[in-house]
Amino acid sequence: MTIDELGVQLDSARWFTLLGQYRAEEGRQAISSLEAWRNEDDGADSYHHRIAGAMEWLPGQSSDPDPAHGDRLQALAAQAGREEEMSQLSLTVYKRALASLNSMGETPLLRAGAHDFQHVARGGAAYAARKAACEIFLEQPGFWCSLIPLFCDGHWPCGLMPDKTLVVY
Predict the structure, then answer these.
(1) Looking at the DSSP assignment, which residues form a beta bridge with residue 164?
(2) In which element (H, E) is residue 143 found?
(3) What pLDDT, on the 0 to 100 scale, is given for residue 41?
(4) Which of 7, 29, 31, 73 has its CA 20 to 30 A from that of 81?
(5) What is the pLDDT of residues 132-154, one digit of tens each?
(6) Nearest CA to 67 among 153, 142, 169, 3?
(7) In whole angstroms, what is the distance from residue 6 CA to residue 129 CA?
(8) What percent of the chain has pLDDT over 90?
(9) Please, is 7 exposed, middle or buried when counting C-beta atoms within 10 Å of its C-beta (0-12, 13-18, 19+)?
(10) pLDDT in tens, 45-57
(11) What integer pLDDT is reported at residue 40 of this predicted model?
């Protein structure tokens, strides 16, 4: 994936239109709802409760640590003397993702009881786009680049299980 291809995907994304419809595959688990996060014991099956109890949410704010790379991407850019260039590119992509996300309306499937996950989901998509830009810049497409098609197709890759299995809503 190139930066231009990333931009095209972000501009044409169908943000969160296929929530609950993802089919699990190797290394990825699917959830069909957010009911297990309602803070109530009813409304979700044991499968979803198990995931809710063990899953770590993917980052949703630009200041959150990167669970896939830690500080490695910044260190690589700094070693190459290109940290500022990477930072500017990732910020540009982040803003492009936010602009695309702002064009979508509210998504009822991002609510579970009193909890509204709209902000977290949108923040997670923008965070993934920013980190994908860093991976592309460093010519090391990986974890974050693999999430972009999921987001753009309408799913929400929202967390990681302890064994690093991706959870997709």
Answers:
(1) none
(2) helix 143-153
(3) 61
(4) 7
(5) 999 999 999 999 999 999 999 99
(6) 142
(7) 8
(8) 92
(9) middle
(10) 899 999 999 999 9
(11) 61
pTM, two decimal places: 0.95
pLDDT tens-digit readout, 87-134: 999 999 999 999 999 988 899 999 998 999 999 999 999 999 999 999
Ranges assigned E (strand) in the chain:
28-30, 56-57, 111-112, 115-116, 157-160, 166-168
From residue 121, alpha-carbon distances to 103, 107, 156 in Å are 14, 10, 7
Find, among 116, 130, 117, the residue nearest to 156 by Cα: 117
* Contact indicator for 130, 94 with CB cutoff of 8 Å: yes
Residue 150 has, within 13 A of its CA and on its CB side, a CA count of 30
**Residue 88 half-sphere exposure, CB side, CA atoms within 13 Å?**
4
Strand order in the sheet with 157-160: 28-30, 166-168, 157-160, 56-57
CB atoms within 10 A of CB 9: 19
Q: Which helix (H) or strand (E) holds 18?
A: none
Q: Which two tokens stand for residue 52?
A: 């809710």
As a whole number of angstroms, the distance between CA 51 and CA 42 comes to 15
